[in-house]
Design brief:
The structure holds two protein chains of two kinds. Chain A is α+β, with helices and mostly antiparallel strands. Chain A is built from eight helices and 20 strands. Helix content of chain A is about 25%, strand content about 35%. The radius of gyration of chain A is 24 Å and the shape is elongated.
Chain lengths: ~350, ~280
């Protein structure tokens, strides 16, 4: 999507002013608690992703912000104005729907003009802004087409133009890329990200795809069963997952169950010094944190162990190994492409990479 | 996939049925409209006198026009009742949707004739409505225009055909994806704007189908005028009936029938074009 330099803003990664504040929001449908006291604030110009499995409540939270549902408890504020008491059409929020929801009886141009028309914008201004929006998503040549004549990716672009033409303060995107095939999806991710940077509009993006979330977001809010599990930048949430669930949901990991006694952590055959009170502990150790050890000694900050190769999966740029450390302890190890491996080898990882997580 | 013999065998009964009971009678009717009656006997003498009579005598045109007026009123009234009902059921009835739907459809199970007689007992001079009006001392003698008038015919036909109008509109409304309504609100449209710009245009094919049902069915109705229409509420089908019966002028009756058929077929042709124009599948 081409540059729209005029109102270009560069959002900072550190939240400064909160645009949207969700305060203790709960939602139940009948007896089912879909959201349980969620509090979250979104900074102006931020790209925040609500990540979660289906049924985690992420779409419900989005619908509460858009106004299609009412919270059972809690409040939502935007720019110093209470949002949850306003009807959807009075909120300065626009949504890109999962299946685009383009009006089938209107042309692409009329679809994009819809929001301006219902607000009685002068005709000349409508024309200019619609043209600009269609250019932004490279859809100007399809202006006269009906949505049914467009491919999924093209409909996606129109849906985006239709929302952005209204210059919302906050754009809600409900799994907008889930209906696209893998290649187009990657391409649209890139375009979405650069569009968001150029326009400086706050994006609240819903997805169940952790890779997509990591690629796009300034921050990720991970939802689990209607409650926030962790809110952090993609790098932080990957490197320092707070819980075992987060560690497993975002990227691949080895969860090591063990205990700490006398400042020594023991997980099966692995042992390393750790200055922490005695007790049970779970550690997350990413597969790529483990390396093949060519030989020689190890440093004090590293753990070295010997394991036999059980399986080797070639992945083009890397290889995934499953290794047996003995005593029924298996670990996944991601190494640079190496060539066929067999038998026993020495492996090493840095103690700092074994991140202690909550259950 | 299927053999030729199988296909022929399967399509034969319906073809025979349509041929014997629809096309053949139409052909006979068409032929009759060019014949004549002399001294009480049908003579197979080709002529255009029947059509001449039809357009020369104002009485037939008058009845035909009145019939179309009544059919138009019925269409208008049943749309006025059927559309809001269908809209309410589809969008705002919540958990009571199934129940309300059944309530709308149930009257279709009651015989047309029974419903006709019901209106007779309601509208007659000794009827329920007149007794009630007098009981309230709003009138001192029975109001006579209630029964045996075009008004009564429109009332009864509206009652009978509203479900027929309701059903296609309801089906069209149910087929509107709900995210479209949300998208409209999301883009800043109020409920009224959403209705006028999204819901109404997308339900137009159903609306046209319903209106066509009401108009065409009313146009050919002869029981309602017979039961509650009186002399002033006579419709074109009654004229045809009497020409084929007591008056024994089958050729003139056939000529009128051909005219009605022409009106109905042009109308169906037109509405089908309109429905296609407004469908976006």
């Amino acid at each position: 999507m081409s540059s729209v330099g005029a109102n270009s803003l560069h959002p900072s990664h550190t939240p400064t002013t909160a645009l949207l504040e969700i305060r203790g929001v709960s939602k139940c449908f009948g007896r089912r608690d879909v959201l349980k006291g969620v509090s979250l604030s979104i900074a102006s110009g931020e790209f925040l992703t609500l990540l979660g499995e289906s049924g985690s409540g992420k779409t419900t939270l989005l619908r509460l912000i858009a106004g299609f549902e009412q919270p059972s408890a809690g409040e939502i504020w935007m720019g110093g104005e209470r949002l949850d008491t306003l009807p959807p059409y009075k909120r300065r929020v626009n949504t890109v729907f999962q299946h685009y929801a383009l009006f089938p009886h209107l042309s692409v141009r009329d679809n994009v003009a819809y929001g301006l028309r219902v607000k009685n914008t002068p005709a000349a201004e409508i024309g200019d802004r619609v043209d600009q929006s269609l250019r932004m998503v490279k859809m100007e040549e399809f202006a006269a087409s009906r949505p049914s004549k467009l491919s999924g990716g093209q409909q996606q672009r129109v849906a985006l133009a239709r929302a952005l033409v209204n210059r919302p303060q906050l754009l809600l995107l409900d799994e907008p890329l889930s209906a696209l095939d893998a290649n187009l999806r990657k391409q649209m991710q890139g375009e979405l990200k650069s569009l968001q940077r150029e326009l400086g509009i706050t994006f609240l993006f819903v997805t169940h795809d952790q890779e997509e979330a990591m690629a796009l977001s300034d921050r990720i809010a991970l939802l689990r069963d209607g409650a926030l599990e962790q809110v952090a930048t993609a790098r932080e949430i990957y490197a320092h997952p707070a819980t075992a669930y987060t560690a497993q949901f975002i990227g691949q990991t080895n969860l090591l169950q063990g205990e700490i006694r006398g400042s020594i952590a023991t997980c099966g055959v692995l042992r390393w010094p750790l200055d922490a009170p005695d007790g049970l502990a779970i550690f997350s150790l990413r597969p790529e944190a483990i390396r093949l050890c060519a030989g020689g000694g190890r440093q004090a900050t590293e753990v070295k162990f010997r394991a036999s190769i059980r399986q080797q999966l070639y992945g083009g740029s890397s290889e995934l190994l499953e290794v047996d450390c003995g005593a029924g302890q298996f670990l996944r190890v991601r190494i640079p492409v190496h060539g066929p491996l067999s038998g026993e080898h020495d492996f090493v990882f840095s103690i700092a990479d074994a991140v202690r997580v909550q259950e | 996939m299927f053999s030729r013999a199988y296909k022929t065998l399967v399509s034969l009964p319906p073809l025979l049925w349509v041929g014997l009971f629809l096309l053949l009678p139409y052909a006979l009717m068409f032929a009759h409209s060019f014949w004549a009656v002399k001294d009480g006997l049908l003579v197979h003498q080709w002529n255009l006198d029947n059509y001449h009579t039809l357009f020369a005598k104002p009485v037939y045109i008058e009845v035909l026009l009145r019939t179309m007026r009544i059919a138009a009123s019925v269409t208008f009234c049943s749309l006025l009742l059927g559309y809001p009902l269908a809209y309410y059921l589809s969008f705002h009835s919540g958990g009571r949707k199934e129940l309300l739907y059944q309530l709308v459809v149930v009257p279709l199970w009651v015989s047309y004739l029974v419903r006709g007689y019901a209106w007779k007992t309601i509208l007659g001079s000794e009827g329920v409505l007149n007794s009630f009006l007098q009981y309230l001392h709003l009138t001192h003698e029975p109001v006579s225009f209630l029964l045996y008038s075009p008004f009564a015919v429109v009332l009864m036909l509206t009652h009978i055909y509203t479900p027929f109008v309701f059903l296609p509109i309801y089906a069209a409304l149910e087929h509107i994806p709900r995210p479209l309504v949300e998208a409209s609100q999301d883009l800043g449209a109020s409920s009224t704007q959403t209705f006028l710009r999204v819901i109404l245009p997308l339900s137009l094919p159903g609306l046209i189908a319903g209106a066509t049902f009401a108009f065409v069915l009313s146009l050919g109705d002869f029981l309602a005028p017979l039961l509650v229409g009186g002399a002033s509420g006579t419709m074109i089908a009654n004229v045809v009936q009497s020409l084929f019966g007591a008056a024994y002028d089958w050729p003139l009756g056939a000529a009128i029938s051909v005219c009605i058929l022409f009106v109905v077929i042009s109308l169906l042709f037109l509405t089908e074009r309109l429905e296609k124009r407004w469908s976006f599948k």
